């Protein structure tokens, strides 16, 4: 008897690799949109290799070609829930084990790609992890959708859910309580993100870190900006143009209402490789001095511009930050201290992460060079306020669910997804997030596995109806994941 598996003699590496690469651009329902996890394996290769490792090697060229083509089809994202293909894969695997489901144990499951695909293939799957974040991701990937996410008919009128409707209860409750958290947080701190008189909504704020010029005869404030573009598209070019007035750097917006000057080069900012250039006197500040100023607490920050979106208009518009904007930020700063003290008394821990950044850890060491020694230093005051307020509301949502008679384990499942949403939001809500002028949006902090210093940064309004990273967008992505995972058909074994 030939005991070799298909993967031992052949595998369509090129085709499966192509599907794995294509998967990076798939967002709707993909596991990567549940929560960030390093080195998560592609679902395409996880599904294809698991299948190929369990079926026997082909007996002849014809069988080899059929199995090879099937593996290619199996690896495609659009076939991940295809009933015919998944059922065939399951039957092929069952037949190799006398009709009994095989057991799979992944002791270092990480982000859950391999156990998820083994579950998809009908295997009795066990996954374990040491990291608590990974454990939560695994429960939200493998356990909760299968346990609570199967569509069922509503037997009684439950407010949003009407009798006779067939709904996914887990999905509906994540929607319901996600919206409750949003509205509760907005009611409390929405005033710190006020709308414009014309109804425009602030979706983001452009900030620049600052240092004092080291020329004794100048001492002007240097806004550290790597470039001045706000929008850089073929059909839209808007930028901040700096100018000096009364020994202070001021800005105007060009390309929107004012014409774009021909001789202006927005690519040339005031800082490059930590070497700063003073626009007032023309002197430079070397990189070591710049870092020293940050370490000594002599660096500051300045709100430069506000990014706006009007519900009845396409695209984004920009305006300069005003004294009123700064006053509102200072009010948020004051409210943060009050709320932080209150929650610290209630929770017994600081709601703002006060753990030290390990200076011996290679990739975050950059933060120490610029005086950021604790994780809480990576957020400005309003960002901290927003994140701890959403965290508080998620905790309150759990309490409210218990008061309404929800099962404790089920309520825990619902708020687990909302907790992951906070993690997703925090990735887009730090002072290391920059404004991307080509796309006019805010990329996340962990665009790569490092924490590079950001001279200018973009602060996201988590209540904004547009831009990735807002509460609504992150919960929406998680809802798509729940919907996708809940459709994994249960394994039926013939007796």
From TrEMBL:
Signal peptide: none
Ranges where the DUF1156 domain occurs: 11-63
Domain of life: Bacteria
Gene3D superfamilies: Vaccinia Virus protein VP39 (3.40.50.150)
Name of the protein this chain belongs to: DUF1156 domain-containing protein
């Amino acid at each position: 008897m030939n005991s070799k598996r298909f993967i031992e003699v052949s595998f369509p590496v090129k085709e499966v690799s192509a599907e794995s690469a294509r998967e990076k651009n798939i967002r709707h329902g993909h596991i990567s949109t549940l929560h960030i996890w390093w080195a998560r394996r592609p679902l395409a290769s996880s599904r294809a290799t698991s299948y190929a490792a369990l079926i026997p090697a082909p007996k002849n060229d014809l069988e080899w070609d059929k199995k090879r083509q099937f593996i290619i089809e199996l690896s495609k994202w659009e076939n991940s829930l295809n009933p015919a293909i998944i059922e065939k894969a399951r039957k092929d695997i069952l037949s190799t084990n006398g009709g009994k489901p095989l057991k799979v144990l992944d002791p270092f499951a990480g982000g859950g790609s391999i156990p998820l695909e083994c579950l998809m293939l009908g295997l009795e799957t066990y996954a374990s992890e040491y990291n608590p974040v990974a454990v939560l991701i695994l429960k939200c990937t493998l356990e909760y959708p299968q346990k609570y996410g199967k569509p069922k008919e509503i037997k009684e009128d439950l407010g949003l859910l009407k009798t006779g409707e067939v709904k996914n209860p887990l999905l509906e409750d994540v929607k319901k309580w996600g919206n409750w958290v949003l509205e509760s947080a907005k009611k409390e701190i929405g005033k710190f993100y006020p709308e414009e008189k014309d109804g425009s909504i602030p979706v983001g704020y452009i900030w620049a870190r600052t240092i004092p010029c080291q020329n004794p005869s100048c001492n002007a404030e240097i806004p550290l900006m790597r470039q001045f573009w706000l929008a850089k598209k073929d059909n839209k070019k808007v930028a901040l143009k700096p100018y000096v007035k009364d020994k202070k750097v001021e800005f105007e917006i060009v390309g929107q209402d004012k014409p774009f000057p021909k001789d202006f080069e927005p690519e040339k900012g005031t800082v490059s490789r930590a070497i700063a250039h003073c626009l007032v006197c023309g002197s430079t500040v070397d990189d070591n001095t710049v870092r020293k100023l940050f370490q000594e607490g002599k660096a500051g920050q300045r709100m430069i511009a506000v990014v706006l979106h009007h519900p009845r208009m396409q695209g984004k518009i920009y305006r300069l930050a005003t004294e009123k904007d700064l006053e509102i930020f200072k009010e948020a700063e004051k409210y943060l201290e009050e709320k932080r003290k209150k929650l610290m008394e209630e929770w017994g821990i600081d709601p703002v992460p006060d753990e030290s950044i390990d200076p011996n850890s290679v990739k975050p060491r950059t933060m120490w060079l610029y005086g950021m020694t604790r994780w809480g230093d990576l957020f400005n005051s309003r960002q901290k306020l927003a994140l701890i307020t959403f965290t508080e509301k998620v905790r309150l949502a759990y309490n409210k669910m218990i008061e309404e008679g929800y099962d404790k384990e089920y309520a825990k499942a619902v708020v687990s997804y909302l907790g992951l949403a906070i993690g997703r939001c925090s990735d887009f809500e730090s002072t290391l997030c920059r404004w991307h002028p080509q796309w006019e949006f805010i990329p996340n902090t962990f665009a790569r596995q490092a924490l590079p210093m950001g001279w200018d940064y973009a602060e996201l309004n988590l209540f904004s109806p547009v831009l990735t990273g807002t509460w609504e967008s992150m919960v929406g992505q998680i809802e798509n994941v729940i919907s996708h995972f809940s459709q994994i058909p249960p394994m039926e074994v013939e007796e």
